[in-house]
UniProtKB/TrEMBL annotation:
Protein name (Swiss-Prot/TrEMBL): Saccharopine dehydrogenase
Lineage: Bacteria, Pseudomonadati, Campylobacterota, Epsilonproteobacteria, Campylobacterales
Saccharopine dehydrogenase-like C-terminal domain sequence ranges: 141-388
PANTHER family: CARBOXYNORSPERMIDINE SYNTHASE (PTHR43796:SF2)
Any one Pfam family match given in the protein's UniProt record, by short name: Sacchrp_dh_NADP
Entry EC no(s): 1.5.1.7
A single MF term (Gene Ontology): saccharopine dehydrogenase (NAD+, L-lysine-forming) activity
EC top class, as a word: oxidoreductase
Native source species: Campylobacter gracilis RM3268
Domain Saccharopine dehydrogenase NADP binding: 4-137
InterPro entries in UniProt: NAD(P)-bd_dom_sf (IPR036291), Sacchrp_dh-like_C (IPR032095), Sacchrp_dh_NADP-bd (IPR005097)
Length: 403
């Protein structure tokens, strides 16, 4: 039985908090705290109305480490789940190591001014967590998160050696808007407008943004244009999957999204530096976020499915093997269960499962860890129980779903 403090009250948080409340045998006390307390109260009301479970709420500025330490002490929290923004990762990690409790998040640290996302500064806190006799679990969403667990499961159970991994993220949902993002617009647009990067034979190769595209036939979804992006799980998987020769990440985008993004980029609306407008300083991408639909509001309008998974190629018993491990999620079913669409759902459910692994002591240690550092099987079992069932297709060596 654990006492959890959840920070942030957006779409991902709503799913993670609902799912923690659905697992009250593990999470005996839940406190939801965020910058805007009314958003926490709205999630608390939804949980009370639907599940009859009462949770506590609080106001917090997660950039203020002292205030977070005080809140941990006040609530008696035994673990902290960060589903605020990646900008808060370092201050919340510091609060956890100071309070001596485990830290869990879903996205690696980004500095608001540089658009650079990498694990370096979070991994550097390994010594602090060791000294505090506790742990940090990084990237417990879907990608990163479940995709790392799929790779770890393959390494631990399906292959003697893994040579190539392609991570394939398809969102075939339709929300009816010409342009909207499925999670925080600022974080999403920074990610997809960056240069592409993949890892091959020991070195990083860079491409232009969206330069490499291929068509992939996603099971239960269909054929979608898939673009090569850099994604943060590549950084840890390159380190942790031994013998890996190539790893790439692809995400699907529709033409309307791409056309809007190109126009916004061309006119400077994706800039992350300050510009002066009528004597007021604004950051264009933050202003754009204000204009775009709130991702949390997409839930009731989104129809269709997501399919996220990994195609893994390697050797087993001296023979070539290729498997495709994936999950398919339905936007409308996610909304019916949690009041949020599938992108929030596929992130919030693994955030809860990662917290559960830590709360139950199934995943334990001292220091800073990525998902693939642990036994994948118990996490994979929970995915099947908690709403993200996975399937494995045994593909012929060399067989492609590319069309
Ligand atoms: P939202 O923007 O919907 O929610 C973020 C929440 O964090 C808001 O409630 C916001 O408060 C709160 N917040 C922001 N700054 C602070 C602060 N300084 N102190 C306290 N609270 C703060 O984001 P999402 O729910 O879409 O995403 C949440 C996280 O999940 C992000 O880190 C995102 O990168 C990650 N993610 C990970 C994925 C994965 O698969 N691994 C996929 C999708 C998302 P307020 O409402 O007041 O602004």
């Amino acid at each position: 039985m654990s006492n959890i403090l959840i920070i942030g009250a957006g779409g991902v948080s709503q799913v993670a908090t609902v799912k923690c409340a659905m697992n009250a045998d593990v999470f005996s006390k839940i406190t939801l705290a965020s910058r805007t307390k009314s958003k926490c109260d709205a999630i608390a009301k939804l949980i009370k109305d639907r599940l009859g479970v009462a949770i506590d709420t609080a106001q917090i500025d997660a950039d203020d480490t002292d205030a977070v330490v005080a809140l941990i002490k006040k609530t008696g929290a035994e673990l902290l789940l960060n589903v605020a923004l990646p900008y808060q990762d370092l201050t919340l990690m510091d609060a956890c190591s100071r309070a001596g409790i485990p830290y869990i998040d879903t996205a690696n640290y980004e500095h608001p001014d540089t658009a650079k996302f990498e694990y370096k500064l979070q991994w550097a806190k390994d010594g602090e967590f060791k000294a505090a006799n506790t742990m940090a679990l990084l990237g417990s969403g879907f990608d990163p998160g479940v995709t790392n667990v799929f790779c770890a499961y393959a390494q631990q159970n399906l292959f003697d050696e893994i040579g190539e991994i392609d991570i394939l993220d398809c969102n075939a949902g339709d929300h009816g808007y010409p342009f909207a993002t499925n999670f925080n617009p600022e974080i999403n647009l920074r990610e997809v407008s960056a240069k592409g990067r993949y890892w091959e034979r020991g070195e990083w190769k860079e491409t232009g943004p969206m330069e490499i595209m291929f068509k992939w036939d996603y099971p239960k979804v269909g054929v979608k244009d898939s673009y090569l992006l850099y994604h943060e799980e590549l950084e840890s998987l390159v380190k942790n999957i031994k013998g890996l020769k190539r790893i790439r990440f692809f995400m699907t985008f529709g033409q309307s999204y791409l056309t809007h993004m190109k126009c916004l980029e061309n006119v400077g609306m994706l800039r992350i530096d300050e510009v002066e407008h009528n004597g007021v300083k604004i950051v264009p991408i933050q202003f754009l976020k204000t204009l775009l639909p709130d991702p949390a509001s997409l839930g009731p309008r989104t129809k269709g499915k997501t399919n996220i998974g990994c195609v893994i190629r390697g050797l087993k018993d001296g023979k070539e093997r290729q498997v495709y491990i994936y999950n398919v999620c339905d936007h409308e079913a996610c909304y019916a269960e949690t009041g949020a669409q599938a992108v929030s759902y596929t992130t919030g459910v693994p955030a809860m499962i990662g917290s559960m692994m830590v709360a139950k002591g199934i995943w334990s240690g001292k220091g800073v860890f990525n998902m693939e550092n642990f036994d994948a099987k118990p996490f994979m079992d929970e995915l099947n129980k908690q709403g993200l069932p996975w399937e494995i297709i045994e593909m012929k060596p060399g067989e492609r779903y590319e069309v």
